[in-house]
Amino acid sequence: MKKIVSGIRPTGSLHLGNYFGALQNFIRLQQLDDADCYFFVADYHSLTTHPHPDDIRGNVKKIIVDYLAAGLDPERVTLYVQSDVPEVIELYLFLNMNAYVGELERCASFKDKVRQNPNNVNAGLLTYPTLMAADILLHHADFVPVGKDQMTHLEMTRSFGNRFNRIYGVDYFKEPQAFNFNNEPIKIPGLNGSTKMGKSEGEGNAIFLDDEPAVLKKKVMRAVTDGGPTQPNQPKPQAIENLFQLMRVVSAPETLAFFEEKWNDMSIRYGDMKKQLAEDMETFVAPIRERIHQFESDDAYIDRVIRQGAEKSRVGARQTVQDVREIVGFRRMD
Ligand code: AMP
Ligand code: TRP
Questions:
Q1: How distant, in Å, are the alpha carbons of 64, 75, 102, 177, 224 from that of 12?
Q2: Residue whose CA lies nearest to ligand 1 atom number 11
Q3: CA dihedral of residues 100, 103, 105, 111 (deg, nearest 10)
Q4: Could you say which of 59, 80, 84, 165 would form a disulfide bridge with 313 (CB–CB 3.0 to 4.6 Å)?
Q5: Could you state, in order of their start, the residue ranges of all structural domains in the chain?
Q6: How many whole angstroms separate alpha carbon 231 and alpha carbon 228?
Q7: Residues in contact with 163: Cβ distance below 8 Å, sequence separation at least 6, in sequence order
Q8: Would you state the pLDDT for residue 186?
Q9: Does residue 7 line the site of ligand 2, with CB under 6 A?
Q10: Between helices 151-168 and 87-97, what is the axis angle to 10°?
Q11: C-beta of 45 in contact with ligand 2 (< 6 A)
Q12: Which residue puts its alpha carbon closest to atom 8 of ligand 1?
């Protein structure tokens, strides 16, 4: 059995970037008979930005609903909320003792956050990679399906695990690897010309799995473009490449080929391309959106899923924490 672990922060609805970067892999992994999958809502992680308690509750439910609507089956995978498995915090503490401030400060995602929010550089933000390492090592993950932006964090997870092994002279933590069915980690671009679709990348940049048809269409029709090609077979500027990249994931290969040809012979009409892209996105999103609405109104079911996930996840989590306590020199509590 291979252990698979991944999480998503509860900072709003999931978008197509989350779907193609992460969820699509989760769904394919759950179909494998030799994969033992743990997928969670990283709610402790969201505290770095000080969300209001009501927002946490709502957003956690939102992610679970989106997970289920996208096709995760709680009977096949362990679907849980990070804070329901507080064992991770004890492991986080142990790992923090051997994580160096220098390496945490050098982490690109930390530097980005500092730049974006210079007034809220809290210790939780600095130690984000150790908490993420604890999430992964808690379950002895073999594979971690995540998008390209998470590669540094995974690298740090491996070094924290290896360092623990070295310090204590044990062979306890294994090295988790990134996983993507397409081999290459994928990055879905935004509609505003930015290279990453993201929740916090500004209005209109992301298509959410629960966007209503009119909203979706409007966002796509407003996507950033330019004056059009001026020479045949010319390389595409970023914003235009983005539209093609989005088409690559939601449209049929013939559709993509059709617009590639139009680009190359300079007869492309961005309006037509966007209209087609919006239609193909709508076809993709519609069934998921419908299931989101169904699950949203079934609190009892969501509650059952979350409880069951917490129970399943805690079995292995307790074991890991007790082993680590013993290795470090503390008393086992089991
Ligand atoms: P986040 O929403 O940043 O918590 O990301 C959750 C998961 O979605 C992680 O595995 C990310 O790598 C992935 N992800 C987020 N945005 C994108 C994107 N634009 N392209 C590909 N993967 C993404
Ligand atoms: N850092 C990840 C993100 O921003 C979310 C995350 C937290 C995660 N813990 C994890 C992903 C463990 C994979 C495994 O997307």
A1: 11, 25, 31, 27, 24
A2: 147
A3: -150
A4: 80
A5: 2-187+299-328, 210-294
A6: 9
A7: 98
A8: 85
A9: yes
A10: 70
A11: yes
A12: 18
Pairing status of strand 143-145 against strand 35-41: unpaired
Phi-psi region of 177 (alpha: psi -120 to 50; beta: other; left: phi over 0): beta
41 token code pair = 């809502």
Residues with Cβ within 8 Å of 11's Cβ and at least 6 positions away in sequence, in order, are 46, 49, 51, 59, 199, 200
Q: DSSP 3-state assignment of 141?
A: coil
Residue 187 Cβ inside 6 Å of ligand 1? The answer reads yes
Output the CA–CA distances (angstroms, integers) from residue 212 to 218, 259, 271, 281, 287, in the order listed: 10, 26, 20, 11, 12
Nearest ligand to residue 92 Cα: 2
80 and 306 Cβ atoms separated by less than 8 Å? yes
Q: Which atom of ligand 2 is nearest to the CA of 147?
A: 15
Query: From the alpha carbon of 145, which atom of ligand 1 is closest?
Result: 10
Give me the average pLDDT of each 10-residue run along the chain (334 residues).
Answer: 96 92 93 97 96 93 97 97 98 98 97 95 97 98 92 97 98 95 86 90 91 97 96 96 97 98 97 98 98 97 98 98 98 94
Q: Where are the alpha helices (DSSP H) in the chain?
A: 16-18, 24-30, 43-46, 53-70, 87-97, 101-106, 108-116, 123-126, 128-138, 151-168, 213-221, 238-250, 253-264, 270-296, 299-328
8 Å CB contact between 27 and 72: yes
298: phi then psi, degrees, rounded to nearest 5: -120, 70
Torsion of CA 163, 166, 168, 174, to 10 degrees: 70
Asked whether the whole model's pTM tops 0.85, one would answer yes
Task: Pull the structure tokens for residue 53.
Answer: 């308690």
Distance 235 CA to ligand 1 centre (A): 27
Superfamily of domain 2-187+299-328: HUPs (3.40.50.620)
Q: What is the CATH number of domain 210-294?
A: 1.10.240.10
Indicate the SS3 state at residue 124: helix
